[in-house]
From TrEMBL:
Entry keyword Protein transport: no
Coiled coil spans: none
Organism superkingdom: Bacteria
This protein's name: Dienelactone hydrolase family protein
UniProt source species: Nannocystis bainbridge
Keywords recorded for this protein, A-Z: Hydrolase
Gene Ontology MF annotations: hydrolase activity
Entries under SUPFAM superfamilies matching the protein: alpha/beta-Hydrolases (SSF53474)
InterPro entries reported in the protein's UniProt record: AB_hydrolase_fold, Dienelactn_hydro, FrsA_esterase
Residue ranges occupied by any Dienelactone hydrolase domain in the UniProt entry: 128-218
Record keyword Hydrolase present: yes
Amino acid sequence: MIHARTLAKTTMCVAVLAVGCDEEAYGPDAVESQEWHHLELSSELGGGGDSGGEADLGGATVVGVEVLDVTIPKSLHAQGLAIPAKLVRPKWSKAVGQKPAMMVLHGSGGLLKDGKTKAAPCSEQMESQFTAWSDRLAKLGYTVLLPSSYSARGFCDKHSQASKMPKTFDENTEQILGRIYDLDAATRYLCDRPEVDCDRMGLLGFSQGGTMTMLGLHWQIEHALQYFRETKANTVDIPVPDVKPGRPDFKVGIAYYPGCGFDGTVPLSTSTKVAVENKYLPTAPLFILHGSEDSLVEHCSTEHGAGSREIQAGQVASKQKVPNLYDITVYPNAGHSFDSAGAKADGGTAAGNLAAQKAAMAVALAQIDMALGD
């Protein structure tokens, strides 16, 4: 169902045209700068900085944060795969009942730091970016689920551990398909948590996780799987089953520097002759935060490339007579991974990446609060 809710459009920054690519290559996104860990935000956002900003809801306050290792059971997964995850949740000063939740999706660098032995490819520690984001959101009162799609399949980092990837997950398209099923299972798991208000859940993803955020809001994800199975099933080494009906909805999505081509899982054509069901439209407010010097912006923005998804969203909304909830901000002189890497991001300038890092975080926290806050 399309949610008939509109939000103010964020301002699209003016920047030069980014170079596009046919096959989306997600650059390493685990490089981090020292500046990132101390980034401060203005208090008017409700406190998003690492130095404070704990939620105060009806006299109940967040007095701490706990991190749990959990497993999303294989019974929820269409491919029968159990997914390890981190659950980060606030500790309250008194009982508060069900509260909103966020799911955070990792990029191609994985959720966890590399392990120190061949027998243990992944550490139990999250990459610093995800430690900081989950802590920040938990202090604002959100329960945060972070599925680990890579460690579930025996490796930790797509770039440094490519040789460990299974045959069923070693191609970009297989990764997107597999993570669609991971997301489906994780959504059901998060909704069933006793502390979670299932009617107030949001998505936040980075790089490949940003792509998954977009697909998590796709109005025709079930049809997309069926269409792929009918037209391209012989191109991958995995079965492409349907997902069960009734997956809970998300109320907002924040996608940092995603690849919008979706690696062939959803057609890119903007032709008016193409069935509307084969075009992209988010079912909830989607905020894409991208850099002008990131080649992955190609299919996301009409000002910086072909903008196929932006065009499709407009076409579907017009055809179906529903709101177009697709929003993109492109930051000038910013490259890939500006959130985690800051000045050392892949492309752009140091100043442009630091400015994008700060501005994008402000947008992300404000829109999450607008969609899910009390």
